[in-house]
Amino acid sequence: MHPAYSVIIFTTLSGMGYGLLFWLAAAGLSGSIAMDGVFGSIAFGAALLMITLGLLSSTLHLGRPERAWRAFSQWRTSWLSREGVAAVVTYIPAMLLAVGWGVFEDVSGIYAVAAGLTMLGAGVTVWCTGMIYACLTTVKAWHHPLVAPIYCILALLTGAVVLNGLITFWFNVEKNIIWLGLAVICVAWLMKAVYWEQIDSAPHTHTAGDATGLARFGQVRVLEEPHTQANFVMREMGYQIARKHAEKLRLLATIGLFVIPALCLLALLVATPGFAVVLGFISVFSASLGVLVERWLFFAEAQHIVMLYYGAQSN
Predict the structure, then answer these.
(1) pTM of the shown model
(2) Measured between alpha carbons, how far is 182 from 185 in angstroms, rounded to an integer?
(3) Distance (Å, rounded) from C-alpha 297 to C-alpha 299?
(4) Is 108 helix (H, G, I), strand (E, B) or coil?
(5) What is the DSSP letter of 139?
(6) Percentage of the chain lying above the pLDDT 70 cut
(7) Packing angle, helices 260-268 and 147-170, rounded to 10
(8) Which residues, including other chains, have CB under 8 Å from residue 273's CB and lie 6 or more apart?
(9) Whole-angstrom distance between the N-terminal and C-terminal Cα of the chain?
(10) CA distance linking residue 34 with residue 195, whole number of Å
(11) What's the average model confidence in pLDDT over 216-226?
(12) CB atoms < 10 A from the CB of 62, how many?
């Protein structure tokens, strides 16, 4: 599949923003971070800004962005529509929680309810994003039980890294949150490694006969190209990346998204306050680049069954 940069930026920024929002709400409920109004305003502002920029960037992939509002009407059958509805609804408790923490330095009562709803809304929104791809039976690499969970765990990972980065700048370190971040990194690393291994080893069972519906008549092969020149389907669905390049990019994504942030978080446990800020910045920068590469690969490595109609032998 052709990697659309607007969608890559959308899933990266919104995932990071919702992950940060989730951990802020959880920290507010558990009392693991001091109720500092300025910190709360900055942290919630960063989360909501990333979410908003991500959602806006997603409309750039549309042929008619001004009609994006129509996507909300299909929530009964469309995961994209459910994602849009969940994203908008989540703003309400998130902004209420931001006011409670940032203005009144309080996460109790109605603000505690808002924190719980914020966590729920963030989780549901990211899950819907993952299901947009996981529900597509025509793309084998996406129609996988780990796709939606990986979207969620990577949102939690990047959100935890950003939260630790903000904490190092404001409060020095919070060891419990560091250990939480390390645990999430380990789980995400394992899930992504399993996913890559399974899509690599999956048998190519679809043939041109399946794509054309003529398999019952025997082996099907393309005698002539369906078109004399490349069309939209071929450009968008027929993108391919060489195996050796994909392996290098997987390694780069692993180092940037898992290895460097994990090492930085471990170093935070013994770092001086000044060095902790540097480590926090490095971890955020590395995780951001790593998840961008991971998301680019997610699209570039996916093969759509329609390409069997254009001459591909199996899928």
Answers:
(1) 0.92
(2) 5
(3) 5
(4) coil
(5) B
(6) 91
(7) 40
(8) 168, 172
(9) 13
(10) 38
(11) 73
(12) 12
User: What's residue 4's pLDDT?
Assistant: 84
Residue 290, token pair as written in the block: 């790593």
CA dist., res. 120 & res. 78, Å (int): 20
- For the stretch 194-208, pLDDT in tens is 999 999 998 776 777
Query: By the 8 A CB rule, do 138 and 233 touch?
Result: no
Is pLDDT at 144 greater than 90 in this prediction? yes
CB 46 within 8 A of CB 288: no
Segment 128-141 mean pLDDT: 93
Comparing 173 with 196, the larger pLDDT belongs to: 196
Residues 6+ apart with CB under 8 A from 275: 267
Question: What type of residue is 106?
Answer: D
Looking up tokens 């048998």, which residue turns up?
Answer: 203
Can you tell me whether residue 12 is helix, strand or coil? helix
Spatial contact of 257 and 290, defined as CB atoms under 8 Å apart: yes
Give the chain's length. Answer: 315
- For the segment 38-94, what is each residue's pLDDT rounded down to a tens digit? 999 999 999 999 999 999 888 877 767 666 677 778 888 899 999 999 999 999 999
Contact 7, 58 (CB under 8 A): yes
Burial annotation 255-292 (CB, 10 A radius, 16+ → b, else e): bbbbebbbebbebbeebeeeebbebbebbbbbbbbbbb
104 token code pair: 């009144």
Token pair listed for 31: 């009392």
CA pair distance 262, 186, nearest whole angstrom: 8
